[in-house]
Specification:
22% strand; 2 domains; alpha/beta
Length: 447
């Protein structure tokens, strides 16, 4: 038996044994996205009657189960907290079973290094390689910093997890850093399947793709709109594109399969797609598995605005829920209901602004239907009550609806109002003009 094999055997534990290291009052970390430790979570949930006041941090759980939350609907033992809501976590929040942790994504590793206590970290990883390294796979983000902060580190080996590559060892964890190893049979990795895009989203995507140049470096989010952007890019005449993106998904797979993702014009990591999280279908998970042209990095590197700006023609594409006449953007709440999170939208808007030839797009359909079926404008006079400002007006850049794209950089309040109203739905423009007049941000000459 090799030294690595012996170390592995010595540290191997059952899920129940690993969950047994959690004590009342502990802070427990599950990482983000696909780092989620299914077996350890189930085992910890079974200890509900033995423990009190156990706090868990996680985020972006796309599979419909967080065992510690579902097992404790009264929150008498477990309190689950998320850095960024998935659709499932949003539903948990509606049931008062999930709390939001505000953050700007690039700062997350610093939180763990400087401010947060972690008693036990449970992180899902790939199978170990011959040198004793486990890949962080689909979720690098703050995982290395979580391991550094944790008093006890438990790695859950997932047989379905891809082994993703990177620079140095910042995309892996060595067996010597773990206190326990858990293994067992897992369900296939949860897939994020996007819904069919609406006609409005297709129109928005066409506006954006028309402003992308050959050699651009792309950041594309996750969802139906980013997916259609990827499809249109794949069908376009664009070439020599690059990837430097917080998250990657099926959109980038489409662009790569169309032969357009060469990464040949990047200044940093030429030839490599750079990212920190991967969410999508099995096609995405297979694409990143031991792909020498795809590198995973921690989020404090990927989302650093100056690293982003090192790429010329940086194109950042993100979605929003509401924007006001001043250029303030909400991308995370509807009133007091938390929908997602701040994520790295502002990181990439800042990086795109600093990039030579960069463009930062915030996209939203001009209207939506309220629960009672009423058509309402997403462009409003000022932020609705309870809505969080994700992007301040001082950093507004390109705003896009199906009615066009406007660039607010450097504009006065009356210029912004004029531009925003020009991309609002026509049936709301007159009342928006009236509101702008009341707010004294409308010039009579605008008419």
């Amino acid at each position: 038996m090799t030294k690595i094999a012996k170390l592995y055997a010595d540290k191997l534990r059952t899920p129940s044994e690993a969950a047994g290291c959690v004590k009342s009052g502990d802070w427990v970390d599950y990482g983000m996205g696909a780092n989620y430790p299914d077996l350890a979570d189930l085992a910890l949930a079974k200890r509900k009657e033995e423990l009190t006041d156990v706090k868990i941090r996680g985020g972006l759980r796309i599979a419909p189960r967080i065992a510690v939350a579902e097992a404790d609907p009264e929150c008498g033992t477990f309190t689950y907290n998320s850095w960024h809501f998935s659709a499932y976590e949003r539903k948990l929040h509606d049931r008062n079973l999930c709390n939001y942790l505000p953050m700007t994504f690039r700062y997350l590793p610093y939180f763990y290094r400087r401010h947060l206590s972690v008693d036990v970290a449970f992180l899902a990883v790939s199978k170990m390689d011959e040198n004793g390294y486990f890949s962080l796979g689909l979720s690098n983000a703050a995982a290395r910093s979580i391991v550094g902060a944790a008093k006890t580190v438990v790695l859950e080996e997932n047989e379905h997890y891809p082994f993703t590559l990177g620079c140095g060892t910042n995309h892996t964890i060595h067996i010597s850093e773990a206190d326990m190893i858990v293994r067992g049979e897992h369900d296939p990795l949860a897939e994020l399947v996007n819904k069919q895009p609406s006609a409005e989203e297709i129109a928005i995507a066409r506006h954006i793709v028309g402003m992308i140049e050959n050699g651009s470096v792309l950041q594309i989010g996750i969802g139906s709109l980013p997916d259609v952007v990827g499809s249109l890019i794949a069908e376009s005449d664009l070439k020599d594109l690059g990837c430097h993106s917080e998250m990657i998904g099926d959109a980038f797979v489409k662009i790569d399969k169309a032969g357009k993702l060469s990464n040949s014009r990047k200044e940093e990591h030429k030839g490599k797609s750079v990212w920190t999280l991967a969410l999508g279908t099995k096609e995405t998970y297979d694409w990143v598995d031991r792909n020498p042209n795809s590198w995973s990095f921690p989020v404090d590197y990927v989302n650093d605005p100056y690293v982003i700006a090192s790429n010329d023609k940086m194109i950042c594409i993100n979605s929003a829920l509401e924007a006001d006449l001043y250029g303030q953007v909400c991308a995370e709440t509807v009133g007091f209901r938390n929908i997602s999170g701040s994520g790295g939208q502002l990181d990439f808007l800042t990086g795109a602004f600093l990039s030579n030839g960069g463009k930062g797009f915030v996209c939203l359909t001009s209207t939506y239907r309220s629960p009672d079926g009423t058509q309402r404008s997403r462009i409003v006079p000022s932020m609705s009550e309870g809505n969080i400002v994700t992007d301040p007006r001082s950093q507004a850049f390109y705003i896009v609806t199906e009615y066009g794209s406007v660039n607010l950089a450097g504009l006065s309040t009356w210029e912004r109002a004029e531009k925003m109203i020009s991309i609002a739905h026509p049936i709301f423009r007159d009342e928006l003009i009236a509101s702008a007049e009341k707010q004294k941000i409308w010039r009579r000459s605008n008419r």
